[in-house]
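Reopening: F-box domain-containing protein still failing for me.
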Amino acid sequence: MRSPKQCGCTISMEDLPEALLGEIIKRLPTTSDLNSISLVSKRLYTIEAELRDTIYVGCGVSPATMALASLCSRFQNLCKVEFNYSGWTTNHGMQLDNQGLHMFSSCCPLLTDLTLSFCSYIDDSGLGFLACFKKLISLRFKALPKITSAGLLSVAVGCKSLSALRLMSCKNVGSVEWLEYLGKNGLLEELVVQNCKKIDQFNLLTFGSGWMKLQKFEFQHWYLPNTFMFGGPSYMAGNQSRYDFCCDFLKDLTLARTTTEKEIGLCCLLRKCKALENLALYYALGVHDNDMITLAQNNRNLKRISLMLTPQHCDGYVYRTSLTDDSLKALALCCPRLQSFELTFYGCEPEYPEIGFTQKGLVMLIQSCPIRELTLSGVDIFNDKGMKALACAQFLESLKLVSCIAITDAGMHHLACSPSLINLALELCNGLTDRGVAKVVRARKLESLTIEKCSRISLKAVQGAAKTVHYTDDCPGYEEWMERCVYGPKVYDLHAF
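Support: Ran it again with your exact input. Result attached.
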């Protein structure tokens, strides 16, 4: 077959079939590319407008109501919209307000996913307009200071198709009528509550039968607990009906900065889950070996576990992390699909009994499960002997070590024999030098190498050491690392969007 060039003819963008143009536009990765291609011709402008189903509105779009009307007029098939006014000042002009949200609800009938972040002018009356989005299934509210429980109740009642709700830093949302309504409705599959001061874990237990359908749940309190705190207005020690629910379909569970005792509080979920695949416990005080053992025995599909531990009072006057090698043994025996394991210690010294785990227990877990991703942060009990055992892990592809002070170049040399390692990240590991990294680099064909704030590893040693290399040499002190463990984004903003 002769090509168009051989035929003496040329093909312009206007000659291409509409379906082909649509495929080209769908493959463009950024909004700036989409905006640019829409300027090439009227036809591309029209097709791009029809295909655009997602927009982001930030501080630069002002006046918001008029600009939004224009956007909705052009992009009539919008399904996902995010309003984010982070960093907004009065110099940016007017934000989206209740009136703008009312207008938006009337001209965007296909919307399924809405995010409102740092919208200071939207209150409960504005939330009432969300019922006009008949197809809305996902809502994210972040830092909306004027909304209260009354507004959320109107959302729960009016948004009949809602299946995902995320609340972050909404300081005036408190009472739980909205949560009880959503629980009885039984449609939510995802519920995230982060840093909402007036919502505690006992409020969330009123979700009732809603737990049965929930597949993802995340709760982060607004402070790091250091003592057991009970007796809040919604807490009734003798009311066991609060714990009489099932969560057989829960696959993804995150608990951060919670405090529980003797199965009282949200940590009771660990004993109720039977389909869990991903678990994150970030400074969840009161979780004990029995909880983890029951969890492991009931969930053979566990794939990812992330633990951040700090010492607490255990077994009388002993002050240590509440989990021990018994938990690791249960995971090793009962979780044949565990592929990702992350462990962070905060406020622990290398001496016992502050750390309940031992290096032997960690090695047992790593060698028993098909671990592909491993992160150790502040794990001072892990030394060069542990690295030697780690190098024998058959499936290990990605390793990240953060402030592991007991690991030296000798330990890194063992990684040269690792059969599958392709991604290596080292951060605040001041016991390592260029010699240790060079041995691994020469032996392994790394796809990525990340060196951050390791004072004895030079840029020269890592240049060209992998397909992708990231290097920073800004070295903070130990106190700064500890502060980041507690207040950094990994703990406080686990699912930033």
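The chain has a mean pLDDT of 83. If you still see a failure, please send the error message rather than a screenshot.
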